[in-house]
């Protein structure tokens, strides 16, 4: 049996953008500015929506507004639909015009200061009308966002097994020590030599930590982790102060207090470009092609400066 919108739903749909903006901003004037309409027009749309659904959706709080209980329920049920509609319109428009559109692109915390900005700067010169929504996150979070469609593509280290992936190259993992550390002058260190050392590492859920733990187990010892933190720049700063050693990829920006030393017993990590299982728009395909065509240059940038 065919299903049709009720009169109330049909009347509600054109007003949902105004409702979503006001609900998110908590302020009528700011929401009107966000949508580019006069405040009076936005207020009329909100009153029309309240009349349609038959209950108050907002209440005054100081100079702003907040959702009533009914308003919160309506927003929870409709907010994803509003953004899904926005995505659908963006997809249709970008399919028609490969020079415009939106691409949601993710990359890991181990990349960013040099390699990704350089890559995107080149892309922006070639396609200045394509908008980029950027997300920097931990690897499993990126994979989850690609799987459920919140990201169109993402560089991941290592790439997941359940998504379409193009391997761009490999990231070398090195020993990082302070310049005053006895191992700073070595040309190579075997992982087994590090058993007496104190390590600074990321949390156990991070892939770099899993590499450290498994590699040390294979080398016959359990690493003594004295500091545990997720931010890699903080890890490097702690190492530079002589508070421990770390097993990390080389930083993309100079760290004068650090020395990176080649390390045997730890494997390199694959760098992959993952895409979702949904149909890519022309804009997404264009960014993907740009990244793949510049893979060697991109990987060279991830190597960071010599130390």
From TrEMBL:
Q: Tell me the ranges covered by the HTH lysR-type domain, including all copies.
A: 15-68
Query: Keyword DNA-binding: yes or no?
Result: yes
> Is the keyword Phosphoprotein assigned to this protein?
no
Classification via PROSITE patterns: HTH_LYSR
Keyword annotations for this protein, in alphabetical order, are: Activator, DNA-binding, Transcription, Transcription regulation
**Annotated Gene Ontology MF terms?**
DNA binding; DNA-binding transcription factor activity
Q: Which InterPro entries match?
A: LysR_HTH_N, LysR_subst-bd, WH-like_DNA-bd_sf, WH_DNA-bd_sf
Task: Tell me which Gene3D superfamilies the record gives.
Answer: 3.40.190.290, Winged helix-like DNA-binding domain superfamily/Winged helix DNA-binding domain (1.10.10.10)
**Organism's domain of life?**
Bacteria
One GO term of the cellular component aspect?
Answer: protein-DNA complex
Under Pfam families, the record lists:
HTH_1 (PF00126), LysR_substrate (PF03466)
Q: Which PANTHER family match?
A: HTH-TYPE TRANSCRIPTIONAL REGULATOR CYNR, TRANSCRIPTIONAL DUAL REGULATOR HCAR-RELATED
What protein family does this chain belong to? Belongs to the LysR transcriptional regulatory family.
Q: What is this protein called?
A: DNA-binding transcriptional regulator, LysR family
Q: Which organism is it from?
A: Rhodococcus tukisamuensis
Ranked from the top, the taxonomy reads:
Bacteria, Bacillati, Actinomycetota, Actinomycetes, Mycobacteriales
């Amino acid at each position: 049996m065919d299903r049709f919108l009720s009169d109330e739903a049909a009347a509600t749909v054109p007003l949902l953008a105004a409702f979503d903006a006001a609900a998110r901003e908590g302020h009528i004037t700011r929401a009107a500015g966000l949508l580019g309409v006069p405040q009076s027009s936005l207020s009329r749309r909100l009153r029309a929506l309240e009349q349609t659904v038959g209950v108050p959706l907002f209440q005054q709080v100081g100079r702003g507004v907040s959702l009533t209980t009914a308003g919160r329920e309506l927003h929870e049920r409709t907010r994803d639909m509003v953004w899904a509609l926005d995505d659908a319109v963006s997809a249709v428009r970008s399919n028609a015009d490969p020079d415009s559109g939106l691409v949601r692109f993710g990359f890991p915390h181990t990349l960013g200061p040099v390699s990704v900005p350089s890559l995107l700067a080149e892309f922006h010169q070639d396609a200045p009308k394509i908008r980029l929504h950027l997300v920097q996150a931990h690897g499993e979070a990126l994979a989850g966002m690609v799987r459920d469609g919140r990201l169109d593509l993402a560089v991941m280290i290592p790439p997941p097994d359940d998504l379409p992936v193009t391997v761009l190259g490999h990231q070398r993992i090195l020993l990082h020590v302070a310049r005053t550390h006895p191992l700073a002058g070595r040309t190579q260190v075997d992982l087994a030599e590090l058993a007496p050392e104190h390590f600074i590492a990321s949390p156990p859920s991070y892939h770099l930590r899993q590499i450290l733990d498994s590699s040390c187990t294979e080398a016959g010892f359990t690493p003594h982790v004295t500091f545990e933190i997720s931010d890699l720049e903080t890890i490097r700063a702690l190492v530079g102060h002589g508070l421990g050693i770390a097993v990390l990829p080389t930083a993309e920006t100079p760290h004068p207090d650090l020395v990176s030393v080649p390390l045997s017993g730890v494997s390199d990590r694959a760098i992959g470009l993952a895409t979702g299982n949904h149909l890519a728009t022309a804009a997404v395909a264009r960014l993907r092609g740009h990244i793949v065509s510049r893979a060697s240059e991109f990987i060279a940038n991830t190597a960071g400066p010599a130390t």
